[in-house]
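#onboarding

Welcome to the new folks! Below is a worked example of what a typical request in this channel looks like: someone posts a single protein sequence, and someone else replies with the predicted structure as tokens. Don't worry about understanding the tokens yet, we'll cover that in week two.

Example request:
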Amino acid sequence: MSLDIAAFFHAASSTYSYVVADAAAKCAAVIDPVLDYDAASGRSGTASASKIVEHLKGRGYTLEWILETHAHADHLSAAQFLKQELGGKVAIGEGIREVQTTFKALYNLGKDFKADGSQFDHLFKDGETFRLGGMGVQVLAMGGHTSDGVAYVLEDAAFVGDSLFMPDSGTARCDFPGGDAGKLYDSVRRLLDLPEATRLFMCHDYAPGGREHRNQTTVEEERRSNIHVKDGVSRDDFIKLRQGRDATLPVPALLLPAIQVNIRAGRFPEPDSNGVVYLRIPLDRL
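Example response:
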């Protein structure tokens, strides 16, 4: 098998990014790259994403795709940095249009911001397939956490975004705009209908109980022991559990800075007349 997977952990946001490559064909995709961002100072940086660039160059891989599993609320995307450095097409699920419409209103972005997904190079439909070297990749819509979520499935691996966490962490929250616990349950069951040996690669791990961080599990392990959606948990029971838990969760620290960048495919807003880029923070709206 020529599938080569490398994981990169961004500790500040507990995010895993992945380089996924056909080693024989020397072509690669990057999934969910992270831009460094310090909210206190407003400083951004590319040190973390540069490690991915170095890895790709070191392996001699051509970057063909920069794949987002959704418009993240906990980190800023480094998609444009990677594209500038190495090329590749930036892609996300077609549900991004709904996310853009919602947050265009929240940020009052005006008529110049188009909520049509055109900021991305490609929008994936549910069930769409594409090639990465000699390997086929299938895109599965993963609504519920957000309306634009997707998973990427190739060979014996699936990259699940925020739909599913390690078994001892359960599933993602569903209280963001466009979230729906019932839809998330249905989405997760699509993943759990994959062959039991399928490797599932997480976008986040928060290491509950102080255990070591983990980024990989299997369909069989999730079906046996996921604390929210293991086999035997009904849709109604999951909705009740998920809604109850979501009511106790704080707003993610970087939601307001991150979303306005990520709905632009990782671009910052245009600079003001003084040459400075500003992020908008709506007060008393969330």
